[in-house]
Amino acid sequence: MTQFALLATEFPDIHDLAARAEAMARADARIACGYARLTLEAMVGWLYDHDGSLRPPYERTLAARIHEPSFQALVGAALTAKARLVKDLGNKALHEARGVPAADGVTAVRELFHLTYWLARTYGRGAKPAANIAFSAEALPVTTAVPVDRLNQLTDAARRYVEAVKAREAADAQARASEEGRVALELKLAEARAEIAAVRAANARTLDEHDYGEAETRDKFIDLLLWEAGWACDRPGLDTEFPVTGMPNSSGDGFVDYVLWGADGKPLGLVEAKRTRKDSRIGQQQAKLYADALEGRFGQWPVIFYSNGYEHWIWDDQRHPPRPIQGFLTRDELELAILRRSTRKALASVPIDGAIVERYYQSRAIRRVAEAFETDHLRRALLVMATGSGKTRTVIALSDVLMKANWVRRVLFLADRTALVNQTVAAFKAHLPSASPVNLVTDKAATGRVYVSTYPTMMNLIDQGGEGQRRFGPGHFDLIVIDEAHRSVYRKFGAIFDYFDALL
Known about the structure:
By secondary structure, the protein is of the alpha/beta class. Helices cover 50% and strands 10% of the residues. Strand 1 and strand 2 form a beta hairpin. Helix 2 packs parallel to helix 5. The protein is globular, with a radius of gyration of 25 Å.
């Protein structure tokens, strides 16, 4: 008996995919994670098709739909984190060449169970699943014979799902071809969404008392984010429950949830994890006490992270207050953050290259941005410059100043058209060739110090990973430049600016 039987009557397609993930959870973690992600994609697709409160994002990818504010408002922070966890475990399983830990398959199916419980409880027309229904890892089937072509089966299932979605969209497009068909389709859609809204409202009158296992999600999600940044319990450099002394309690002892170590044996970072129902910022003072204890013993104050599993904060030095962050920094990024405490120069002391900018107002703009970052301790600035006044050159000279002062190592320049990307790359090559500018639209694998991209290209690259970690983690870029910023840009692609922990 499948634990996803609660879906069978009203959500048969989602049920079939979930049952496949469940069947493989203890037999092949890689295939289980892949099917769990595919099930989530089908579930999220159903929500966007049927719930009129959801606004379609800039594109139909799973990552974009989960990040959409209306989706997060609908499902809440806890279920959003579960959706991200299932998505990322699926990505990890498909990108990680090494064996996928058996626990990942169970975790993906467990989190999927809670998500589908919410779906059935919120939108089901018939009998609702009992509040005390619980996921059981022990009840998962044990399969000893796993088909050799199991990955091909997953690929075929994903292909069939995509083809079905495309076929439905094509049918809708054909129906919209005529005015009568368009009106009929819109009326049908409006009626269906009104019915769904009524069902959802009726179900919401009963208090949801289901235990969604938030503590398990918190621990696994933090572990996954650490893995994406290159930290893992089975690799050197990460300690859990690390003992420290000198704490203000009766025994003077304490245990740091996670310590991230440098190659020199000094602490680069620490992570303090709090219960998910508490504000993550409650851990700030506790984390500072741990950081002070580590500094007293090892002579280095680590970068502080504190999290409740859903919200994550970073406190990297005494210059800026703690701020939200979407994940953790890599060892290289942490080492650079600590090194900058002693090597970062005053921006006013770095001359502006007169060969790049020649006009007085360009130099004034660069100095004013520098003051905003250094004196005012701001992390965002806006330049308003007329057409033909040399915006690109101004930004190139600003990047040069920030690089020479060791404030910035890598820059991301974003434009809304490929032609502008090409122009910007050419300008950087002409005026700052030492930055090795990279055109991500045409060469996604290249490396350099300045990366130029369109918004959709970068959104797709954010969600891509490789062996061991994401290619572009939250700390990869130190400065992001938006060419021709408009509210519509932030509305469609705000996920980029939320994801990267960078000056803007």
